[in-house]
Each structure stands twice: as C-alpha cells, then as structure tokens.
Amino acid sequence: MNILIDIGHPAHVHLFRNFIKHNKQKANKILVTIRKREHIEELLKYYQIDYVMLGPHKKNIISKIATLYYYNKKLYHLAKEFKPDIFLSHGSMYAAHVSTLVDKPHISMEDTEHSSEQIRLYKPFTDAILTSNSFTKNLGSKQIRYNGYHELAYLHPNYFKPDSSILDSLDIQKNEKYVIIRFVSWSASHDLGHDGLSLETKRGIVKKLSKYARIVITSEVPLPNDLEKYRVPISSEKMHDALYYASLYVGEGATMASEAACLGTPFVTCVSSHKIGYLIEQEIKYKLGFSRTELKDIVSKSIEILDGNINPNMWIKRREHMINSKIDVTKFLISTVEGWRK
C-alpha cells in the first residue's frame, strides 16, 4: 500500500511517526510532504523519516488560499508519480483537494474545534474525519469518533519511555522542582482574532512562580531580556522528557497542556477564548489540570500545585486512570487506514 501523508505542524510529526514506523516495517511505501516550518525538518530527520518540501509555511488562512493553486499543483504531480492508495493528514486542504483530483480517499485527523475555516476548506474533499470523543463539534456523517487524544499516538506507554538524562541537560537536580512555561505566537490560521498573554502577565507569572520552583521557558516569540534568561533550549525530540519530569506546565499552548496531562504532569492553561474539547475533558473528567485566564488565578492555582497542597502522587494515579480508559490511538489509526484500503 502507498500512503501519502501531508504534515503541516511539528506536532503532526509526532502524531504520525509511529504509524509511519509500523507501515515501513510492513513494507508499505510512505511519502511525507511538508512546508518549511520550525522544528518539522529537525524532527523528521531525528526519526529518520524522508520527506519532500513543498515550499514555505503560510501562517494565515488568506496566504494559504493565495498559494493554494501552487501547492495543489506541486502535490498533484508528486501524487501522480507516487500513486498513493490513500492520503492521510491533520486537516490538510492540500491533501484533501489532490486526493479528489487523483480519485483516492483522504482521511483527516482533527482536534481543533475553532479551526472552522480550515475545516470548511478540506471537509468536502475528505472521506473521513477522525476526532476524539471529547471533540465538541458535530462534523456530520464523515466524522468518526474514537476514545483517545492525538497525544496518545506517541505518549501512550506503549511508545513513550522517559529519559532522565534530560535533567542533566537542563542542569536540574533529581528532586528539584521546575516549571515549564510555554508562550506561543498566535499566528496560526485558527488563531485569527485571538491574543495571548500580555507581557505584563507573562512577567507576573514568571516572577511569582520563580519563588517556588526553577523556571524553564519555551517560546515561539521573542522575549525581553528579563524573561529571555529563563529560556532553555530543548531540542524538539527531548521536550516530552522535560515535560514528564516537570512539576508543572503553565502556558498558552493547548497541545503541550494535553501532552503534560498524558504524562501525569499537572497543567495550568492560559487559553482564554477557545473551547477545546480535549482540555475540557482532561480538566473536568480526569482532573489533570486547570484552565485559568486571570493572572491571580493562574498564579494561585500554580502555587497550590507546587506547594504540594494537591498530593503529587495523585497526578500519577489520575494519569493512569485516564490511560486505562483510553485507546492506543496509533493502533486505531493503523486499523482505520488498513480497513479503508480493504
């Protein structure tokens, strides 16, 4: 079987890498296409996955539409040569459109309810849209729900084993508390009209939490000198190890919050205006973290966690409960694609 996978974000490399590994072992042919974007190539090279570069990443929906013909044409020629039996992506309108042109099925994974424009552009040309049971939108007859999260395609215990050497890389002692704080760029097409934390709020979080734990910042945006000193370069493939051993995750990144939950690290998210189904479920049903928007609430809940007012062992138990109630998402994806082919 020939499978064409279009990747548009570093998280998608993680989402599909175990699926790719499985299919290579079965001697299926895989063609991965990408746009040039930070960390995607770095991760693909680390996991020894070959790829074809289509061009630069477009940050907003307007620029994506403007270059739609160019990328569709390039992907079409690649598809005619590769002859895929099936297309796979996370909401790629390019894969969806070209799959229709070559009369092959396209399966999309989706976990972002507020990505309305993107969904409208790929849904008519897509055969199946795979979403978590926690996904809050009804996408119609093409939607197939499963009991899991994207992050369990690579952070499920079947695949992830933490590497404690990350602590040496971060110069952190074995029992030392540290907090990973994440700031994002808010430049994705589904972020249009939404803003993140103000600089004042970012400073307030760092200043107050630094009294309770070491601060490790990862940021997609430039930082002033007083915050830059907390930025620690962590290679993309080691980020999950760092997150596993952290005492707390605080940040604007929803994906990393869910990753923290899947690793048993409590999260406090600062996502103010998006309704994200998997975070709601992880907070309400599994009690693995908290969503807060005001500085005082973000800080107070973070301190409550760092102070140990919530038993640290409780996070591990809650994580185990969540894992035991969910499926191995990579196995689900494998069976879905193989079943579709048959």
Would you give an account of this structure?
This protein has 342 residues and is of the alpha/beta class. The protein folds into two domains: 2-156 and 327-341, 3-Layer(aba) Sandwich (Rossmann fold); 166-325, 3-Layer(aba) Sandwich (Rossmann fold), CATH 3.40.50.2000. Helix content is 42%, strand content 17%. The protein has 15 helices and twelve strands. It has helices spanning 10-25, 40-46, 61-66, 68-82, 93-101, 116-122, 166-169, 199-209, 225-228, 239-245, 254-263, 277-284, 295-306, 312-325, 329-341, and strands spanning 2-7, 29-36, 52-56, 86-89, 106-109, 128-132, 143-146, 178-183, 214-219, 248-251, 267-269, 289-291. A seven-stranded parallel sheet has the order 3-2-1-4-5-6-7, with helices on both faces. Strands 9-8-10-11-12 form a five-stranded parallel sheet, with helices on both faces. The chain is globular, with a radius of gyration of 20 Å. Residues 186-194 have low confidence and may be disordered.
Q: What is the strand and helix layout of this fold?
A:
Layout: E1 2-7, H1 10-25, E2 29-36, H2 40-46, E3 52-56, H3 61-66, H4 68-82, E4 86-89, H5 93-101, E5 106-109, H6 116-122, E6 128-132, E7 143-146, H7 166-169, E8 178-183, H8 199-209, E9 214-219, H9 225-228, H10 239-245, E10 248-251, H11 254-263, E11 267-269, H12 277-284, E12 289-291, H13 295-306, H14 312-325, H15 329-341
Parallel strand pairs: 1-2, 1-4, 2-3, 4-5, 5-6, 6-7, 8-9, 8-10, 10-11, 11-12
Helix pairs in contact: 1-2, 1-15, 4-5, 5-6, 8-13
